[in-house]
Amino acid sequence: MWGRWRMGALLLVAVVLFLPLLISVSELHRRKVIGWNSVVGNGIAFSNEVSGKAGNKRKLDHLLFGPAAGQGLSDRLHCQGLKALNQTRRSIPSESCDACESVSFVAVFTLYNSSETETSDRLTVGNVSYDKSERSIAILHAYIDFIQVSMPTSNVVILTDPAASFQIMKENTSILPIKGDYSRGNLMLQRITSYIEFLEKKLSERAERINHFIFTDSDIAVVDDLGHIFVDYPNFHVALTFRNNKNQPINSGFIAVRGTREGIRRGKLFLQMVLEVYTSKYMRASRMLGDQLALAWIMKSLLSLDGKEFSKPKIFMADLQRTSILFLPCALYNWTPPEGAGQFHGMPLDIKIVHFKGSRKRLMLEAWNFFNSSANLPDMLCLILLSGRTKYDF
Question: What Cα–Cα distance (Å) separates residue 328 from each residue in 18, 43, 241?
Fold first, then answer.
């Protein structure tokens, strides 16, 4: 009898202790129905779940907000919900003039024939529903839109397969077909080849003024003027972005080439070297990462950079066979939103580029929609900073 009474008392104590926890979990689950535009002060919110066949959940296609990393650090963005508490540090763009040097962004893009499954697998971002091809075009549009906001006098050139069928109706934007193999398994290799052919075309032209080139992936958002790098560092031919990554210290999503004749020539020679290393050593990775493995090999074997130079986000320069290379930290010039455990140091106030690589591409569209409705860049950066902690299905 005594034993039964003691067991009952223990169960009662357990219920009293754990009931608040159960209520908290229930409340967190309930809040999955609120949208990203109703984020509360603690920075946790969810949009609606999307179910697949038989009610099973697919990979998450919603924004999942978490705490804003970098709180308390003076050089990091601070957020309360989707409200920025401090201002980002913006570069002062050069005055526009006919004789001034200009900047063009160059990206490789093509479309692939979608299967019936991909066409029927539609997803909605904001008020727009996309199939896979439409999503790709929407991301390309957002890429151009961000450039036109941050660097309105710049041009955008899209290098593509002559057989590709798409149009871009944007100001200061052109499509340049370049022959090659744009199949999925060869696209990264073709990207380097297309860059080389583009620079060859520029060498054959007689330019009236200097036009610098920044080759990028099409899933980046330019959030500050980048023209300053060509002014502040007048002696480089090629600029790359680096990170503290032993096997792949260079991210190939950003390659800048000075627009002088010598800069273009040096840029072409450097890319030809990358292509040669790529095809001779890393063809097994031709679908993905082969260019970055080739760049890593060049850094270690030809430049003798042992990794210490990449461990701290400090700008530095090095010479490779008379080609002067400027190394810019990814932390500023190629910052990637956290995913999963992510980055714990937050977003720098003087960030220049946000790279929505991999599964983060939906977040790029969400960010542009948010900016388009608010016209507030720091608040949009808070959306990016608080998001990115889940895998999307783009």
Answer: 51, 31, 5
> Which CATH number do you get for residue 105?
3.90.550.10
Q: Convert the pLDDT of each residue in 299-339 to its tens digit.
A: 999 998 878 899 989 999 999 999 999 999 999 999 998 76
Say how many C-beta atoms besides its own lie within 10 A of residue 54's C-beta: 5
Residue 200 host element (H or E): helix 187-204
Distance CA 165, CA 320 (A): 39
* Of 20, 23, 19, 1, residue with least CA distance to 11: 19
User: Would 60 be classed as within a structural domain?
Assistant: no
Q: How many domains in the chain?
A: 1
pTM: 0.84
Closest CA to 369 of 64, 32, 142: 142
Average pLDDT over residues 252-266: 97
DSSP labels for 87-129? ------PPPP-TTS-EEEEEEE----PPPHHHHH--EEETTEE
The dihedrals phi and psi of 307, each to the nearest 5 degrees, come to 110, -25
- Residue 233: inside a domain, yes or no? yes
Find the domain containing 102 and state its range.
92-375
